Amino acid sequence: MHSEARREDSSMTPAVSSKAEADLRWEALKKRDRAAEGQFVVAVVTTGIYCRPGCPSRLPRRENVRFFATNENAERAGFRPCKRCRPDGASIEERQTAAVAKASALIEAAEGAPDYEAIAKAVGLSRHHLHRAFKRIAGVTPGAYFKSLRERRAVAGLSAGARVTEAIYDAGYGSASRFYETLAPKLGLKPGAFAKGGAGEIIRFAVGECSLGSILVAATEKGICAIELGDAPEALVEGLQDRFPSAELLGGDAAFEEIVARAVGLIEDPQRGLGLPLHVRGTAFQLKVWEALRGIEPGQTATYKELAAKAGVPGAVRAVASACASNKIAVAIPCHRVVRTGGALSGYRWGVDRKAALLARERKE
């Protein structure tokens, strides 16, 4: 009776500053808006319990709801914390983020295909809820995360010189056929050639000059695989040789000069586009980020956080920044259009001054 009396007393003293504020909080509660967590808690007179705004419990009747700025205020008014959303502990988002991080570690440590049911149990979620939380926080499902991890391991093994068969099975592929169906086409080279630094691959290239310095353009038979900018032509060529030490590098002929001219034209006027096919090599994650980059229109910019959302991986901002730094096709894959929150220019593979110049051209400054 005493606590009930205190709850009724609290309803007579407004817990929020105005009816308008209470109405906004009611709307947030109806939407189970997790963004409102930390701003207030919701108490229900008929149950004596207070919850987070995002608590999945059944929506109470409006007349039974009281809003409090803090847990302490709600408890002083006689309410006790909900055992489901635990407003007096870590938030649902924090708990699920921790669960996803733990699940990621278990997937990475698994020998062969992960047991997702066992992993879900280990992190305290059902398999269904782990799938949903993983997709929302990491941007991919647990299965897609494992596939991407397996691809990265295979590429790392091949790059380190491992035999193709060893790289395939060490990465966690159950069979060679699965590897050739999924990852091999993304490499652009035959797996054996990739492991040998491009052995058997013919790459044509040429070096020219543009207003931003030296420019190297390289292409396989499938499309452009590099547009690099720099201060010295020799350093650009050496970089290409280091990337494909066993490939057959051929100087471009007269026909290739037209490709170089288009690349130079793109640098001088990014609005015009390249109009040529690209041949990009990367992990599934990198390819997703690079595709999102190509969706940023000339003259526009996006923050790394916004780019992560565009790529469908809102919780992987740092990994998105790393994928931008790994891009080797300047301007055609426009990583120069990504800026820090607030608009400040961040690092750029080919120099921040070049990044500023490209953005100024696109904005016609």
| Average pLDDT figure | 79
What structural class should be given to the helix and strand makeup? alpha/beta
Uncertain segments: 1-16
CATH architecture annotation of the largest domain: 3-Layer(aba) Sandwich
How far apart, in Å, are the first and last alpha carbons? 72 Å
Radius of gyration: 27 Å
CATH superfamily of the largest domain: DNA Methylphosphotriester Repair Domain
Q: Give me the CATH fold name of the largest domain.
A: DNA Methylphosphotriester Repair Domain
Number of helices: 17
* Relative helix content: 40-55%
Number of domains: 5
Which CATH class of the largest domain is shown? Alpha Beta
- Secondary structure: number of strands: 10
H/E order of the elements?
HHEEEHEHHHHHHHHEEEHEHHEHHEH
* Widest sheet: strand ordering: 3-1-2-4
Proportion of beta-strand residues: 5-15%
Summarize the main sheet. 4 strands, mixed
Shape: elongated
Descriptive account of the structure:
The protein has about 375 residues and is α/β, with parallel strands linked by helices. It is about 45% helix and about 15% strand. The protein has 17 helices and ten strands. A hairpin with a 2-residue loop joins β6 (about 215-220) and β7. α4 packs across α6 (about 125-140) and α4 packs across α7. It is elongated.
